[in-house]
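Replying to the earlier thread about multi-chain prediction with a worked example.

Input:
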Amino acid sequence: MTDICDLDTPAALLDKGRLEANIARAKAQCERLGVVWRPHLKTHKSLAVARMQIASPTGPATVSTLKEAEYFAAAGITDLIYAVGIVPSKLPRVHALNSRGADVKVILDSVEAARAVSDWCRAHAARLRVLIEIDCDGHRSGLTPDDPAILETARALESGAELVGVLTHAGGSYGLSEASDRERAAQNEVAAVVRTAQQLREAGFDIRIVSIGSTPTLMACRDATGVTEIRSGVGSVGDLFMANLGVCRLDDIALSVLVSVIGRQSTKGWLITDGGWMAMSRDRGTAKQKTDWGYGAVCDEEGRLLPEYWVRDANQEHGIIARRDGGAIDPTEFPLGRKLRILPNHACPTGAAFDRYALVDAQGSVLEMIDRINNW
Amino acid sequence: MTDICDLDTPAALLDKGRLEANIARAKAQCERLGVVWRPHLKTHKSLAVARMQIASPTGPATVSTLKEAEYFAAAGITDLIYAVGIVPSKLPRVHALNSRGADVKVILDSVEAARAVSDWCRAHAARLRVLIEIDCDGHRSGLTPDDPAILETARALESGAELVGVLTHAGGSYGLSEASDRERAAQNEVAAVVRTAQQLREAGFDIRIVSIGSTPTLMACRDATGVTEIRSGVGSVGDLFMANLGVCRLDDIALSVLVSVIGRQSTKGWLITDGGWMAMSRDRGTAKQKTDWGYGAVCDEEGRLLPEYWVRDANQEHGIIARRDGGAIDPTEFPLGRKLRILPNHACPTGAAFDRYALVDAQGSVLEMIDRINNW
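Result:
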């Protein structure tokens, strides 16, 4: 069995035990709420991790790109929602998947899109299941729950596609560091889609999927009556941003980047590593949170946090580790070549810097190298 | 010939004419200064682009990862400097390349590293050419020009490796938006390595390579006497950060991300595109520059800047375009499915989101799909 210290650096490590515990928590919460978990695979984009998450070999699951849909569907995970607004130019790839037996559902949020999609389906004799995207908190896309355009969109779909549900994402919850605020956001997320589903049903539409989901609201939700499924993504992996919000603990973060000490600037109290922003990503999401972690939190080879250090800056292939108090760093403690693990601000872009993960156990042994995909 | 509007989005476009003009400018400047250009390939990581840059089929060139070294060396570009401090754990890959005929030179900046590398070379009967990294401006790594450790490092190398040169990078110049400051930085960069090379030669070392390089200092350099080569990277591609500095014009930026309009929030004046931060990268380097471009500058299908718009925010797979004045956006001007090109803040992380580029001409035709690499 390979020890992590034999890996070339930088390398992405996924701690299997932490991953399993995070996944178990999400599953238990969905079970408690009486809903299906449709995990969002966009964070890890890895078949091996998806298989730890999904309830059956076919899913359900959520994807953020058509390449993810193709990758997961090819491996049998066919019950998918592509949770980014669809336009007709993307339908040939969706249709190709569905023609091969997948059930990739798409979302949209306007009469304009509904007409274009219906027209495309009729012209191509394509069957397509569609959810209407609802905007529950002004975060991004979607129609607001009481917008009359919802019914008009539903009707526009009828002529060529099949309306199967409504979906929302409480993206605004990423700014909520108080548990009580997250609880309110979660119940608001529930209310927005349940109300919309009710209106659509009253108008005669068969709304089978009522879908919510965000990592901060998942664990905060008390009552999901009327919801059929929850999508959540980054929480299975965890990161410093979520830990700062209080959504996970630092010890829950399953992703780290293994780096090597490659130099130092002793007079400045800097260690130089090969974990630059190309490996950590440019994400500085913790900059304005309660703890600014720079480009990452520093742990030893075994994953124990070294809280007096941080990755204070980074260049493309250089990370700069310093003590938070600006003090000197003992060179005998950090010789050239020493390996460290860096916890990321944001698991989604950090994972995307790599084409595979080393799945590791609590002892620092590499259990397996697992693939992931990137791009579109 | 494919039109760019037939590409799946998001897609990375490289404008061939702009690339050629940027490359020609760098070559002309190096010729004027009487030095060799050793382009840094870290921005594009693409063989096709490297071949437009290098003076001969074997190079010279600079790389930021060993995977780049392996990729380019496999294609015959063998005269390489791996310009990130080396540690012994990385030497097997360097040695493997050099054993197959490459000439991958490495850098280091301490007696500790020099001893470790020499020991490794002796133990493995490996020939290895090394440059000592000099810190000309306190930016990152390197020994300062008058540090007595330089001579000690050179001597430590003698027992197992071959000292062939000195190298510096004026990374501090990325903060200089005044041409006169960049000129001073360029001459300081020259002076730092020329003086060090002289000291080493006086001590009996055969210093053949005297290497400087950064995009902001390249064009600002008046006199490179004593320097043998200049490395510069991002300038061949260009980006909004460099344009804000005044190092290139907006019209010189060769990289853009082709996106599709996938929705809108009319009451907010937002267009939603499929160019989120996964495609643009999380780089917000222009945030504190003279023009904050958000997550990118908006151009039409043909690459003409739409200066009244910007990518004001982004999520993983969603870009939010708005008018800078907050005004309404005419939906008939931006129908669903319309393609736009987004210029990136920083070409290096944006390029890294993709596994290939569409090389395009000024008419928006795709001349060729060209590969690039990522990861380590």
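The mean pLDDT of chain B is 97.

Feel free to reuse this layout for your own posts.
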